[in-house]
Amino acid sequence: MLAAVAGVIIAARTASVKSDYGNSYLLIAILITVMAGVRPQGGYGRMVCLFFSAVALQLLSSTCNLLGISNFFRDCAWGLLLLFFLAYGRFGLHDLRVFLSTSRTSAPPHQLPPGATQRNPEG
After folding, report:
1. Is this model's pTM higher than 0.70 or not?
2. What is the pLDDT of residues 56-70, one digit of tens each?
3. Which of 6, 28, 82, 114 is such that its CA lies 20 to 30 A from the CA of 93?
4. 80: Cα separation from own chain's centroid
5. DSSP three-state, residue 119
6. What local confidence, expressed as pLDDT, does residue 24 receive?
């Protein structure tokens, strides 16, 4: 229902009709939902998270416009953000910590039992 209302508003604002007019909003809509924590395989999300992810993406877009960054690079940044959030949702931060900790293994420090004293090997 809200999509129909949005379509009527967009049609009222433009004087022409294109069949692919909504394609520019597809990447943004998917990015907002993935940023909000909704799983692409199916799931649910909170409206508050969707609101804040839309606000954050709008702030990033406004910053890109103020800095004079072209739309091509902005769309590339949206695609990279989408890939990052998809990878984060798939692998998670815990898996990243496990991967990083196994790549640099070190022996744990030797601990003495309670009440024991360490002998000096030289004396």
Report:
1. no
2. 999 999 999 999 998
3. 28
4. 9
5. coil
6. 76
Residues ≥6 apart with Cβ < 8 Å to 50: 32, 33, 36, 38
Q: Which residue has the tokens 């949206």?
A: 78
pLDDT single digits (tens) 74-122: 889 999 999 988 888 877 766 666 666 665 555 455 565 666 666 665 6
> Which residue type does 116 have?
A
Q: Identity (one letter) of the amino acid at 69?
A: I
Residues in CB range of 44: below 8 A, 6 or more apart: 38
Place of tokens 């790549």: 103
Phi-psi region of 34 (alpha: psi -120 to 50; beta: other; left: phi over 0): alpha
Is residue 44 helix, strand or coil? coil
